[in-house]
Structures are given as C-alpha cells and as structure tokens.
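User: Hi! Is it possible to get a structure for several chains at once, not just one? Here's what I have:
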Amino acid sequence: MSRVDGRLKVTGAATYSAEYKLPGLAYAVLVGSTIAKGRITGLDTKAAAGAPGVLAVVTHLNSPKVPGFDTVGKDPSQPATVGGPLKIFHDDKIRFNDQPIALVVADTLERARYAAGLVKAQYAQEQHQTNLEANKPRAFLPTSAQKNPKSPMADYQRGQADAYRSGAIKLENEYVIPTEVHHPMELQAITAHWEAPDRLTIYDKTQGTLATRRDFAKEWNLPEANVKVIATFVGGAFGNALHSWPHESAAIIAAKVVNRPVQLMLTREQMFTMVGYRPHTWQKLGMSATADGKITAITHESIGQTSTYEEFTESTLAQTRMMYQSPNLTTRYRLAALDIGSPIWMRGPGEATGAFALESAMDEMAYLLKLDPMEFRLRNYTDQDPENGKPWSTKFLKECYQAGAERVGWSKRKLEPGALRDGDWLVGYGMGVGTFGAHRGGAHASAQLLPGGTVLLQCATTDIGPGTGTAMTQIAADTLGLPPQNIRFELGHSDYPQAGTQGGSSTVNSVGPAVQEACLALKDKLRQLAATGNAAFAAAKKEDVVLADGYLTLSTNAAARVPYADLLKQVGGTAVVVEAKPGSEGQAYSMYSFSVHFAEVRVHVLTGEVRVSKLVSCADAGTIINQKTAANQMKGGAVGGIGMALMEHAIIDDRYGRYVTKDFADYHVPVHADAPAVEVFFVNQPDYHVNALGTKGIGEIATIGVAPAIANAVFNATGKRVRELPITPDKLV
Amino acid sequence: MNPFQYVRPTKPQAAIDAVAKDPNAKFIAGGTNLVDLMKRGVMTPQKLVDINRLPLAQIERQAGGLRIGALALNSAVADDPQVRARQPLLALALNAGASPQLRNMATVGGNMLQRTRCAYFYDTSMPCNKRAPGTGCGALEGVNRMHAIFGFSDKCIAVHPSDMSVALVALDATVQVSGPKGPRSIPFADFHRLPGDTPEKDTNLEPGELITAVDIPDGPFTKHVHYQKVRERASYAFALLSVAAALDIDGTNTIKAARLAMGGVAHKPWRLAAAEQALVGKPATEETFRQAAAVAMQGAKAFKYNAYKLKMGPNAIVQALKTAAAA
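Assistant: Yes, the chains can be modeled jointly so their relative placement is included. Here is the combined structure:
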C-alpha cells in the first residue's frame, strides 16, 4: 500500500509548521551570540527597533517573565542537578556560541531578518571549553547513575573487571565519532498563537505533541488543556524534535509581546547550534578471545559531550552488554560538559555510536584470529540475553546474516585486505550488526463511524516520515475489514487521544495495538447499537461483526443487516476511545530488534575516495506492516549510515568555540550519487511477546551498524583501519 | 540582507556606467553565490545591476577558436556540441561543478567571479582579511583542511573554488572585458590574483569592468583530456583538490604537448607550467606522469590540517594524466 499522504507531500498540499498563515501573522528572527561563554554587558537594539516594520526586539532585558523558568529545578521530584533546557532571554549569561540573545519580530520575514543584523552586543568573555579531547580528564559519571547504581548509565560488570587485559589474544583501541547534526529537510519552525491570554496554540515541528504541550504548559504555568500543539506534518526530524528548544520558547514569548501570532523558522546555520546533535564521543574498547574464536572479555568505555546546563545521556554501551556471549564484561559511561548547546538523540542514537566501536572491534578481532568476521560473530552468538539471562522474545539474526551474505556476495570476500581490485579501485566487504530495544509504551486511540461509511481514527502521535499514518490506516483496514480508502487516520494534534513521542522505534509497537483495539472496540460498540431490537447482533461476538457497503452485518449470519444510518441516529454516537498498554512480558523476555548491514566498497588507490557500491540491510523487526514504507525507512537509515561513515562532521574552531561548518557546502550529507540501490531483507517473523501485531521496530536498527560495516569494508579493501569517523579521502590517501 | 536598489539595463554600456559610478554597486547574473553572500551579510551591495538582459549568452565559432559569452549558462556550455568537440576538458570541468540546478542558473562570468568558500570568509563574526581587511586570517591557525598549498600569503590562505576556471587556465583562455575605459583582453592566467597583501581583491578587474566573453583558442586537446576532482562525496561538493589535464600524444605514444592545472590549491586556478614541460617529449607512461607530478608539487607547503594535499595532489595528477592518456 502506498503512502496515504504521499500525494499531499509531493504536491505541496501538506501544511508544515511554518506554513500556517494566521491572520495578523508576524515573523521572528533570532540573533545569536558570537562568543561561547561569558556575559552580555551591552545590547544595542535601537537601530533594530527603529527599522521598518519591526514590532518588537525581545532580549533578556525586556522579556516578559516566563513563570515556569523560575520553578524549573524547584520541584523536589525533578532534581535540578541534571539540568534543564536553556531558559531563553532569562539572564545575561552566555552558555554556547550562537545562543539566542535577541529576537526581532517584524511584519515580514525580510524586514525581521534585516533588523536582526542591526542588533549589536558587547560581552565580558570568559574562557570557554569546546574541545572534548582536552576535557576527557574532567569527564564524570552522569548524575542519574550517581544516584541510582541500577541506572543503565551506571558502570556495568559481569565476571571479572577489565579481564581482557590478561587475555591471550587481545586488542585495545580508541574510536571517535565527531559531532553529527540531524539536519532534516524541514528546518525547525514554530507558529505560536495566544488565542486568549491563557490559551496557547502552537503549530510546531515536534516528534511528540503531548510532550511539547506538557513542556510549554509548565513553562507558562497553564493547565495542559489550555495548550494546543499541532504537528500534522513533520518534514523529517531524526531525533531533532524530541526536545523543546529555546527558539520555541522565544516564539511563544514574542507572540505574547506583540499580541499577534508569531512564526519563527531557524536558518540552516542555526540548526547546527541550538537544536541538538549526535554528541562527539570518544570510546575505548578492549577485547580478548581464545584462539578458537570465543570472546573471553570486553571492556567498553565512552565519554560523550554534553552542555554545561543539561546532562544528556544515551545508550552508547547497551549493545555491547547484550550482543555477544562474553563471560567477562565491563562498561563505563561518562560525560564531559562543554560550552556548547545540548545534544539530543540522533537516529540510532547512542547504540549507533557504540556499534561503531563494538562492530569495528569485532572485525579487528576476527582479523587477528584469521577468521571470517561472520563466522566469528556466529561463534559468539547468544541464544539468550547475556546481560540478564532472560530468553529473547524472538531473535532471527542468524537468518539475517545468511540472507545478507548471499545478497552482497560475501563469498567473494578475501580474508587478507587489498586482495580485490577493479581497475583503479580496491574492493572490500564488511559487515556490522545493530540492535535496539523493541520498546512499547501505552497509547490511546479513538474510532468512530462517520456518515458515508468512513471510519475516523484519531491519535496524538506524530509522523515524522516513517509513514505512521499509512501503517495505522492499514492496521485499521485489516482489523475492520474495510478498504483503506474508507479509513481516515488523523494524528499530530495534542487534543487527540494520548500517545507517546515518536522516537526509539516505538510508534508502531505502541500505537498499532491501540488502533487495533480501537477498531475492535468500535465493532463491539456498533454491534451493541445494532443489538437494540436485533437479536442476531445481541448474540454475536465482536469478531463476527462485518462492515460492508453501508451495512453492519455478521460473518456468521449474512441475513442480519443494519444500515449505518440507523446506527448513526442513535444517541451518544459511535465513538470509542481505548487504551492499549504493554503487560508484564518485559519481565519474562528480552525484547530487541536486530539488523545486520553488509557493505561492498570501492576505494580509489590514488585519491582515497570511497564509494559504497553495494549495501544490503537485513532486519529482524518482527511483523512488517507495510513493505513499502518499512523498506523505505531501512533505506533512509542506511543512507544516514553512509553519511555517518564517510562524510558527516560538524567542526568547531576551538579558539572561538564556534562551528566552521555552517551549511550544506561545509557539512556533507550523502547525495543520490553516494547511495547505491540499498537492498533490504526482512525476516518478517512476528514477535507476539511485544504486542498482538508482532512488530518490533525499525527506525534505529536501520542506521545502527551501517557505519562499522562500511569502515570494516574499507579495511578489507585497503588494510587501513580508520577509527575516527568520517572516513574522508585525506585519511586514506 | 540589507535593502538595495535593483536595476536591469538592456545595454552593456548602461550596465557598466551603473557600476562604474557607484562603488557600492555589483553586477548580478545567476546570483548563485552573491545572493548567499548577501544573506549572510558578507557582501552588502547597495545596488544590484542585473545583467541578464544583456546580449552576452552566445557561444560562437570565431577565427582560431571559440567565443563563449559571459552570460552563457554553465549547463549550456557543458552541453554545447562545439565545446564538447573542440574543448572537451571545459565540458568535463563544468559538469564536475555544483549541481545541475546550480549549473542551470550560474553563468560563465559569474563562475569566474565566485568568492572563496573559506568558512572564515563566510562568518562575519570571525577574522578574515578578504572580507574585512586588517582583521587577520582565521584560517591560518584555524581549521584549514580545505586551504591553499601554493601561492598563499600570511594574509590569506583561501582557495578559489571554481572548477571551470581550472580548465580555462589550462586551455590558455582569454577574458574579454569592457569597462569605463573601453574593452580590453586579459589572459586567463592573469585574471585571478594571488592574495599577497590585498586578499580582498580576487581578480584584476577594474571598477565597473564587465566580463563580456571568454575566448578559447583551438588546440590539439580534443581527445586526451580529463578533469579529476577529488571530493568528499560523489557529487555536489567543492574539490579537496582537482586536476585539469590535456595531452597531445603522437603515434609513438610520445607527448607532443601537455596542459596541466590544479584547483583547490591556491587563491587562483593553478597552472603547472614546469610540470607541462616535464611531460613534453616523454612517453605517455605512469613513470613520466609521476615525474611530472613531482615537479608540479615543488614549492607546495601545507598547514596543520591540509598536509594530505601534498600526497593527494601528485596522486591526483597521475590519475588525471593516466585517464587523459587512456581517453
């Protein structure tokens, strides 16, 4: 089934958050600091305020009080020590370069942009720290782990600590991932509208309408019911919209100040500095193995960067703890706080970072052992979770290995690097494994029958691109036995029944069952309505209810027929709202999605350029609801992995604490010519421990493991092991 | 972006007058670089003189060569049958630049006049002698992986980003300009400048001078040519460095004539005359190419982050010559 909103998107009919043209709309442009740390000592906003069309210039000197800014950190249940989002225009402190120091609001975007250039600031500059390497000695255990030794961020150990050091065959290497930036096609944008002094509506780029509603209700000390968040369409996010950011607060403040709706869209430059990124992370991985290829010990340590005002943590070391059968295993996760904006999860998040180290090290150890890297992984395959001893809910990773190896032509791979050549290009093969928890949260959905026979479903979930609306339409159509065109699934509105944020590959796992159950509940509701004066329906089960051609009938009794019109006439309507929640299955099983990526690369012998000539991504992601959108998601994740492996790198000049990569000319993401036709294979075996649909999640495993697959292929082609991404030609020439 | 006046003359003289009389006026053609620079506040012209209506877009055969109008689009030149037949190196270089969308907007004159892509030039809060003379060079001690290895000064180590210009300097092109003092010709090799003490000046154009055409003399380089561009992705990226190579090889595999130039290594497209000399009269073999590449790199000097160019440069030259010879 094709995307339900595909036509809207490609024809421009879909409305994104910076496209709502409300009456009286004003436009806002942010001015950023040009130092990384210090205080603002002077702000000259006269010229800007006097420029044509300017309605207001908001700074920390004149911003209205945001009531929530004062209470953040004062809630004893929310310890302030782990920090909180930047409080915009709250004080004179500069915490990172390009931190917003002023917001210019004008009647047109052009006038706002021009006036923004007229704002001048003076600073008392302080010595900043933006270099991770230099700040490694100051790295610390995250507060969450300090307070709770059972936190996933706490140090982990099974068997002996650092046992790899005494291993007979061992390696110890350092791996570095640079800062990478999400850069979805749609820029971060918000249209903020105070419909009344205490009623706020925002059209916002967010992955979670309810999380955003909660954040801004708190910020303005309003009941959540007074805040409406609308995100009908989101033009990609990759994690970038999992957090409420300063520019959103700024637009809401500005709308209050000018008493008009205000639209604020960041520039591509600002997308680098104030809306998160995958943190620059240093890792060290030690591993030992027996001569016959059994891992005896792994120690995996990492230091990721965070901001000075917010402790961002991610599961960099999670995959190492559960992927391979290693009796001795140690992980240590640390943070380094730098004078830079806060990071946020970026697709695959920490697991993709960690997998680069783990899966590179697996390749390195296999080479030390003179073993095929797939064979080495099979010798350390786990049939239950070595982290907690629980059985897997399902695991079909071996099937993925086999399917991928066949498709990429793994049998052509030579153990010794540099053995295959095609003209001026060295050819190599590599693999990398990914895994991510099959997370499921509670979700609500509503369903009702509309005149005309369409079933309307609603849920507050968002669709940042994977095709949530399409998958849910399909689940509803299957459950109701209706053609998809008779289903209307509405999402992206905080007034709709509650669902979690779209992130962590959890949407279909969570919302899918809610939609399924809402449809079953609707059938039963219709049956009950039909049962008034119709004994056949009164005796029937909801599973027997059939909706067809304007009538409700029964699969067990085709003669029982009630027209929709009769049902719709009844008082109270047909609407049902259900909640679907996970049970205790997580206690009994370890639930993960798995993937393996196989890459064939070509490396130019003279110039060091790398081209990925084949990429095969195989996933054990449970039931695949929609082959087209699922394969599309896998391909997108794989192309993201090419970017991670070969080109993405946000660079800071530490002298200024300021990015020198500021646009797509400096910060490269793959273009079409960089992406081969990615081949996707799904095992497509249901995991009914996760939910009744059998889904496990796709979004993250599509990226996790791709970068090491490419790095390993580069080694196989050239004999050069690059442990600091990206693998640009200067590192291979 | 600052407010500006916009005029759209239809005669070259009117355009020249408009810019010659106003030091804050700029010509605009495709606008693929200038508009970006204006959005960033790097360039703040008070007046834009749109020259798109001037009759300067023809590609014509003339005695001894081709004349390409300054307003000919990059895509039109790359696809022109005469250019492809007589100067295939130019077509290759053009198609290595930017993206199809940009090539459909960018003109030949504008391509020559594009500014450096140095990040310090683009950020008005950072030092840059090219943008703001006297503020220092941010790149000298900064992130300089894209920067020059030839012809730089302590005032500026930026590189010229054009691919097309690398081919044109190799092909001995001549730039036709027209200005307040009338028309004149500038050999392509003298068109762009080295930074010296005045990095704010990219070219030797006088105020108000308008590029009208580029002339390329006919030559023997119709077959053995190659444009080797090394970049961090397969398309749509500026060169880490690039090489334009053209050979005339006789029946005994001896090189009769050679042209060689590099991009991404200097403040101007960098002609490698000594290396050309090292090729002439020699057999067209990898050994010869390696020797020429060594000659080409004489005098190259790297900074903290661009030392790779000292190795990638000669390798790319060898690759370009090999590919040209085999073409």
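The first strand of chain A starts at residue 26 and ends at 32. The domain at 443-581 of chain A is CATH 3.30.365.10 (Aldehyde Oxidoreductase; domain 4).

User: Great, thank you!
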